[in-house]
Amino acid sequence: MTRGDRLTTLQARRIAAGYSVSRLAKIANVSDLTINQLENGGNCDAYVTARILEALAPTVAITSNTRASPTAFTTAANVFVSGDTVTIAGVAGASADPNGDRVATVSNATTFTVPVNCGVSGGTGGTAALSATTCGVVRL
Questions:
Q1: Is 45 within 8 Å of 29 (Cβ atoms)?
Q2: What is the pLDDT of residues 93-127, one digit of tens each?
Q3: Residue 1 has what pLDDT?
Q4: Are 106 and 75 a contacting pair, CB within 8 Å?
Q5: Is 13 exposed, middle or buried (0-12, 13-18, 19+ CB in 10 A)?
Q6: Full-model pTM
Q7: What's the number of CA atoms in the CB half-sphere (13 Å) around residue 43?
Q8: Which of 87, 89, 94, 136 would be 131's cystine partner, CB 3.0–4.6 Å?
Q9: For residues 43 and 41, what is the distance between their CA atoms, to the nearest angstrom?
């Protein structure tokens, strides 16, 4: 039985990030062959998926999120693009829980919004990372 992750949209995400196969492979510490195989329907172990996701968009610290709907997050510089699913974790103090996988709309290199109504109070802290669903991860 074949096991692992299949990254069904890896090629589109790699191109959107502006990476060649060789550049992504080098940053993720995998071979060019691995990237090519994944882009052609191959599968990989979860630790390879994690390295590729971190290479495409490194995890960033969240400074705050606004008291608004949608709530806006301020982060260190990030490379998310609108439509990415980001995993938000560790945000505290918000009136609605923004943690979890959320589809982001990017305003600029340090701000993105997610469709959560934190109209009573914003939050602080936490991290944002590219979710595996952005690369179409299918667990086999």
A1: no
A2: 988 999 999 999 999 999 999 999 988 888 899 99
A3: 43
A4: no
A5: buried
A6: 0.82
A7: 12
A8: 87
A9: 7
